Each structure stands twice: as C-alpha cells, then as structure tokens.
Amino acid sequence: MSGSEFLASRPQISVQEITEAFDALAPEFEAEARKCEIERRPTAALADLMRQSKIPLAKLPHDVGGCELCPSDQIDFFARLAYVNPTAAWLAFNQNGSLGIIGSNASEEALEKIFTEHPVPLMAAVSSPTGRSEPVEGGYRLTGRWSYASGVTCADYIFLASICPDPPGPLGVIIPTSEVTLHDNWHVAALQGTGSVDVTVENVFVPEEMTFNPFVQQRGGVMYGKIGYRAYVGGENFGFTLGVAQRLVDEIAKLAKNKKRVLDPETVGERGAFQQELGRTDATLRAARAYLIDELDLAEAIAIETDAPLAGPDVARVEAALGWATETVVKACTQLFPYAGAGALHLDSPVQRAFRDLIGSGQHIVATNETLDKWGQALMELAD
Length: 384
Known about the structure:
By secondary structure, the protein is an alpha+beta fold. The protein is 52% helix and 15% strand.
C-alpha cells in the first residue's frame, strides 16, 4: 500500500466522538490532575486516557483522518479539557498543534510510519529552532538542545525545529522520543504536571522522509499555513486559559456560599463586594471569548478569500486579540482569587491549581502583551 492509499484508508473521526469519549472519562481525567503535579510529569494513566479519547486527533487535517478543528472552535474544545485536568489540556495543546502541522506538511511516508505504529500518536514538540541539522546521505544528522518539550516524557515522537545550512533555512524533524535525552529541570510553580523538560539530541540520524519544511503546506485548510503561528495555536492556548479560569470562578462561587471570615456574620457570598467582583469576572470571561472568536473567524475568512497568508495588519490584529483576551482574563481572576481565602492555598485545592496554571498560560509566547505593541504600531502606520 502506498502512502497516499494509506492516508485515504484512514477512518475519519468527528469532534463529537472525541468530546463524548472525554466526557465519559472525565472522572478518570480529573483523578490524575494532582498525581501529575506530584510526579512533575504526565502519569501513564493520563497518557492512556489521551489515547482512549483520541484527543490528539482534533487538529489533524481531514485528509489524514482528523477533525481539522478550526481555531475559533478550538477555544471551547480545549477549555473543556482544562476545566477538568489542566495537564491533559496542556498536553493536548502541544499534541494537537504539532500533529496538525505534521499532518499538513510531512511526507506521506512519515505519516504512514507514525500512524501505523501508533493509531493515536502522542507527540511532543518544540518550535524554536535551537538545534542544527547537517545534511548527510539519506537524511540529516541532528544535534541541539531544546526547552519546554511539554509531554515528552509520555510521547511516542517529538517534532523539533532546526536550522539547516544546506539549503539554508528551517527544517522540521520527527524522531522517536527514545532518541532524545531528557533533563530533569521542570521544577516550576505552574503547569507542574506537564513535564516540560529540556531535551538534548546528539548527532542523531534522521531519514529524509522524516523531515519537512515547516512552512510548505501539503494538506488541509488555511489555518495550517496562512494565518500565522500565534493564530494557529491561539484557540488552543486561550481555550486552556479560559478553562482554568472558569474552573477557578466556579470553585470560588461554591466556596463563597458557606465560607465566613472570622468575626464576619455574613458569608463571603452574601457580600456585595464579592457579588460585584464575581459578576465582573464572569462578564470578562464571556467578553474575551466572544472577541477572540470573532477575530479568529475573521482571520480565517480573510485567508480563505485571498488564498494567501495574512498581511501584516491582519496578523497584528488577531494576535493582539489573543494577547488582550489572555491578559484580561488573568487580571480579572487575580482580582477574584483573594475571596477564596487561605483554604484555597492547600495543594489539594482545585482553586490554587487553576490560579497557578492560569498565570502560567499567560506566560506563553503566543499570549504575551508584545502583541499589543505590534498592533499599536500597525495602527500608527494605518493612521498615516
């Protein structure tokens, strides 16, 4: 069977199938949340749950049997996961982002190899090109060190971005995780269970068919190559932010119904100040979600209409929406958090986990407020 015949034979999966499987397994997913933090890596049980629910296939192109979930729809999908288990959602973010690009850009031979070995592959990825690929007969020799390889401890393969001297430019490589050295350096305040350690590769041979140009699209819709990196992963990242934020809001609201401060005759929930802050936070979450959905849909529509990569101002606008939405949600929840009281600081509390992971999601490069700088610059240029 040729590579194209193999891809054509792959069964198609729907988003509904994945979400129904996840909902059925949600109690098991939630049971692993604290365990992952204690181990500082995804548990084997969580990895099995990811495969069972087929979550890593949500962003895979239709041509490879995936859902090809569009950026705006990714928000609610990943929020659903993050609400239950932030580690699972962060892994899903990385697995889907990398598998989507591999499904879009990699060779048919690479896809056949990956999906024959693992019908639901667990991927890790680092998109910063901090390694070097030297051309040799039949492929490349890869050497380098990469940081923030989320989920690599349970992954089957890892996608690493590298720089190739001949021809000069970026080169994506896919290697088994057995070929990388893991560094035990994930000692962090947020996203503790993701195992986002550094990895080192030393002179590993990579067959040519397991390499690809990350900017040359072969399959799938415009999100894989025409809306920019931040918009491509924006629905995933903000979905994570929104999911942990909503969990924090819901848990604090439940606490407030019965919680009393010392010498205070009222419950926290009866205080007007709390009610106002709760209402403001909920409204902020809804507004940020609606705004980003509109901007992601607009970016995709422009790319479809023009059949070309987004121009500078369009890229800046959608990226600014992502940065603003994330920053605004983090700020709103930071204002609400003190009402949870000291009890929320216990490590078995879902409130403190949601708060820490919320802060962590805002530190990701796709959500930084640098995006607002660039949009402001674009506005100044448009004003001429």
